[in-house]
User: What shape does this take?
Amino acid sequence: NHMECGETIELFQPHLPGFRQKLEDMTDEAGDKINCAPHAQQILSIRMKQPVEQGTILRREARSDLHSVAK
Assistant: This one.
């Protein structure tokens, strides 16, 4: 769930077409600008380039620098 400014995210919307967007502007709950959101279920705001429906799913590409879970 870790997201950083500069990454591209993909949005899947319930009724509207999905789209991709580069993360450029994020703020935390207090309205302070942040460069990354490292915590699961962290509350933040992301400036979007087009309208986003409630229930939209955000996804980013998996990183190759993260360790995979052992089987």
